[in-house]
UniProtKB/TrEMBL annotation:
<dbReference type="InterPro" id="IPR004007">
    <property type="entry name" value="DhaL_dom"/>
</dbReference>
<keyword id="KW-0418">Kinase</keyword>
<dbReference type="GO" id="GO:0005829">
    <property type="term" value="C:cytosol"/>
</dbReference>
<dbReference type="GO" id="GO:0004371">
    <property type="term" value="F:glycerone kinase activity"/>
</dbReference>
<protein>
    <submittedName>
        <fullName>Dihydroxyacetone kinase subunit L</fullName>
    </submittedName>
</protein>
<feature type="domain" description="DhaL">
    <location>
        <begin position="6"/>
        <end position="196"/>
    </location>
</feature>
<keyword id="KW-0808">Transferase</keyword>
<dbReference type="InterPro" id="IPR050861">
    <property type="entry name" value="Dihydroxyacetone_Kinase"/>
</dbReference>
<dbReference type="InterPro" id="IPR012737">
    <property type="entry name" value="DhaK_L_YcgS"/>
</dbReference>
<dbReference type="Pfam" id="PF02734">
    <property type="entry name" value="Dak2"/>
</dbReference>
<dbReference type="InterPro" id="IPR036117">
    <property type="entry name" value="DhaL_dom_sf"/>
</dbReference>
<dbReference type="GO" id="GO:0019563">
    <property type="term" value="P:glycerol catabolic process"/>
</dbReference>
Length: 200
């Protein structure tokens, strides 16, 4: 199975552009309940993936996705690196196994569960999982792309009243309440950008 090189290249570019455009916003969210680097961390990861775009586009899809995950682990730094990295690496592995019959919502579910295990986190802990699980749910229910994007956006906002249980924000305890989680926000922004791109 070979990639649609244009699809991979296009997705890499929309993700890079979205993170670049929102980097300052993500840092501001992270300044409120973390150390203020989430935007620059994500930007570094996306730039590294973009730099490898030509090579990635030449790979079969599962290999490309797994390699993107590895690049994210090595370049994002901070807590988000291993988490986004695990998501993509696991998705790549599951896509490879998918040749024996899995559907994408199931592949995504397994990849998200791997992120949860990696971070010892669960839904409701005020992390990117609070966007990933609702997006997976919407996908499993065959929602329209525009509805999946909306669900991602609302889910990120829904992290504001939550108390952080994992990551740096957890050190703040109750003082983390009232702020949107930066990782949930980057995840929603990426989901919205991907949905918009796939709709075109
Ligand atoms: P760091 O906190 O190391 O500076 P980032 O600022 O790049 O890393 O990423 C912070 C985000 O990572 C948080 O907003 C949260 O969504 C996510 N996160 C942190 N720790 C965990 C964890 N244990 N499980 C799941 N997500 C986490
Ligand atoms: Mg940070
Ligand atoms: Mg940091």
């Amino acid at each position: 199975m070979h990639t649609e090189p244009l699809l991979i290249a296009g997705l890499i570019e929309v993700c890079r552009a979205t993170i670049a455009a929102n980097s300052e916003h993500l840092c501001a969210l992270d300044r409120a309940i973390g150390d203020g680097d989430h935007g620059t961390n994500m930007q570094r990861g996306c730039e590294a993936v973009s730099a490898e775009e030509a090579n990635l586009s030449s790979l079969p899809l599962p290999d490309a996705v797994e390699k993107i995950g590895l690049t994210l682990v090595m370049n994002i730094g901070g807590a988000a690196g291993p988490l986004y990295g695990t998501l993509l690496m696991e998705m790549g592995r599951e896509l490879r196994a998918e040749e024996s019959g899995g559907a994408f919502p199931i592949i995504l579910k397994r990849a998200i569960d791997a992120v949860a295990r990696r971070g010892r986190a669960t839904a409701g802990d005020k992390t990117l999982l609070d966007v990933l699980y609702p997006v997976q749910d919407a996908l499993a229910h065959r929602s329209r792309l525009s509805d999946i994007a909306r669900r991602a956006e609302l889910s990120a906002n829904d992290t504001a009243p939550m108390k952080a249980m994992r990551g740096r924000a957890a050190y703040l305890g109750d003082r983390s309440i009232g702020h949107v989680d930066p990782g949930a926000s980057s995840c929603a922004l990426l989901t919205m950008a991907i949905c918009r791109y796939l709709e075109e």
